[in-house]
Amino acid sequence: MHEITVDYWNKLTPLEQLGNIGSEVGRSIKAYEKKDKSFDSALYRALDLFEITAKCWISSHPNRVKELLRAKEEYLRLFFDDNFNDAEKIEKYFMYFAYAARYLEFGGIDKGSIS
Fold first, then answer.
1. What residue segments make up the domains of the chain, in order of their start?
2. Using CA atoms, how far apart are residues 19 and 98, in angstroms rounded to an integer?
3. What is the per-residue pLDDT across 39-85, written as a single tens digit (0 to 9) for each?
4. Cα(17)–Cα(2) distance, rounded to whole angstroms?
5. Of 15, 32, 46, 80, which one's alpha carbon is 20 to 30 angstroms from that of 40?
């Protein structure tokens, strides 16, 4: 598995970080629905990204850490609290960040104004 460094992750905007988390969230949801063996690796990858994001945000965006950890909690409830009905909502929550990051990447607004 590819290890992400804090230095690399800090170079991404919060939108890009959350969009990347969203990719793994979506991957794990799809694998869970299909009862695919890739579920465990997608789940662990998402958890790794939540963790490294929280580490980065503690110093740079401390007021956002609570929301991030709440999102992580809701994500985990899908699989461990018989609450899979909310999977679509959780996936949408994260996909909006991915869409916003793409919008910025292709000239939507100045990246420097989003931090």
1. 11-104
2. 4
3. 999 999 999 999 999 999 998 889 999 999 999 999 999 999 877 88
4. 16
5. 15
Among 14-18, 86-90, 100-104, 107-111, which is the least confidently predicted range?
107-111
- Res 9 pLDDT > 80: yes
Alpha carbon 82 to its chain's center:
21
Report the alpha-carbon distance of residue 64 to residue 86 in Å, rounded.
22
State the Cα–Cα distance between residues 82 and 92, nearest whole angstrom.
19
**CA–CA separation, 58 vs 30, rounded Å?**
30
Cα separation, 90 vs 107, in Å, equals 27
**What dihedral angle (degrees, nearest 10) is formed by the CA atoms of 111, 97, 64, 81?**
-170
Output the 3-class SS for the chain: CCCCCHHHHHCCCHHHHHHHHHHHHHHHHHHHHHCCCCHHHHHHHHHHHHHHHHHHHHHHCHHHHHHHHHHHHHHHHHHHCCCHHHHHHHHHHHHHHHHHHHHHHCCCCCHHHCC
Alpha-carbon distance of 32 to 30, in angstroms, equals 5
